[in-house]
């Protein structure tokens, strides 16, 4: 079985840049080395270059614009992410929603630059849709639970199992399926894997923590407490 995937989405919290951002990156790297998991950090664009120089784990973007290099003031191309040391990008997060053609183009632009996509969706049905668009990794997050501390795995387990079912039954046997929203402790992480997910996406409980390393380790432990 593949290693469970642990994505930490930095979002735009005060801790998402500067000293604390690096500290969280180092702790994530340590967690990957200590537990049998794959750790990915999704940092602000401004941090990709610096953080990717400092850690061996995958550093990715939180979004990419589906444009080709050229006239595009203020846009971020897949080339910029690759050139800064990034390995991929989240696309269509519920806080940064895209139109279908933008998701499709974004995935394509990332692939052209040897970057992978983690495409978010809010329901089991749209999770299958983004798998069909060519996502490398699918991430299902019910938006109403994001940042609440009430986890998708505990409060809406049926959404996790349905997502896994829909995607696997449609012939996508290998595409990693992540779930996120409200994940705060070891049990939430463990339960996500138990329900058939391949990993989790987490933000606030780490980014707002006074002891992020402790939290990262706790969740990492929860993730590999089951052998699939
Ligand atoms: O991308 C992960 C995120 O949306 C989940 O946020 O704060 O509920 O862990 P949070």
Structural overview:
- By secondary structure, the protein is α/β, with parallel strands linked by helices.
- Helix content is 43%, strand content 15%.
- It is built from ten helices and eight strands.
- An eight-stranded parallel β-sheet has the order 3-2-1-8-7-6-5-4.
- Strand 1, helix 1 and strand 2 (38-42) form a beta-alpha-beta unit.
- Helix 5 (124-132) packs parallel to helix 7 and helix 8 (186-194) runs parallel beside helix 10.
- The longest helix has 17 residues, at 18-34.
- It is globular, with a radius of gyration of 16 Å.
- The mean pLDDT is 97.
- Residues 9, 93, 141, 146-147, 180-183, 201-205 line the site of SN-glycerol-3-phosphate.
List each distinct ligand once: SN-glycerol-3-phosphate
Backbone structural class:
alpha/beta
Which bin fits the share of residues in helices?
A: 40-55%
The total of beta strands comes to: 8
Percent of sequence in beta strands: 15-25%
- Determine the oligomeric state from the structure: single chain
Termini separation comes to 6 Å
Based on CA inertia axes, which overall geometry fits? globular
Q: What is the fold's blueprint, element by element?
A:
Elements: E1 5-9, H1 18-34, E2 38-42, H2 45-54, E3 58-60, H3 78-83, E4 88-91, H4 100-112, E5 116-121, H5 124-132, E6 137-140, H6 152-155, H7 157-169, E7 177-180, H8 186-194, E8 199-202, H9 204-207, H10 212-223
Parallel strand pairs: 1-2, 1-8, 2-3, 4-5, 5-6, 6-7, 7-8
Helix pairs in contact: 1-10, 5-7, 8-10
Compose a concise summary of this entry.
This protein is α/β, with parallel strands linked by helices. It is built from ten helices and eight strands. It has an eight-stranded parallel beta sheet.
